[in-house]
Amino acid sequence: MARLRRYRRFDSASQLSGETDELGETVVQTVLVVPVVLTFMWLALQATVFMHDAHMASAAASEGAAVASRYGSTEVAGRNAAVRLIAELGATAASSPTVVRQGSDVIATVSIRVPRIAPFFPSVVTRTAREVKEKYMTEEERNR
Question: Which pTM does this prediction carry?
């Protein structure tokens, strides 16, 4: 019996030496995997920031076009509305918003600067909105 117990102890000692080899593999795997995971996290974060800024640019362009398309409103009022919304949202304009009347349409363009977290993404996002100008009609004109 004593001989069998010694054999078991020797066997468990060899298992301990095998675990140290596995610990080295774990360190190598961690060193290889962590940079890949962090890169994907940074890319996902940059994509999220880009999409958020794109939505802010769309909202500001829509607001500017909507204000400028109202009956009796001007292009300057639409531009001011876009600038105000950009400031309220906390975004940084890359250039001054433009609002232009073309025929029966009003077109507003807004560019917002995107914070850079990861490379290969644009640093500016531009969105355009188009609205039809409101037209005042009297009751008689509507009934024709």
Answer: 0.75
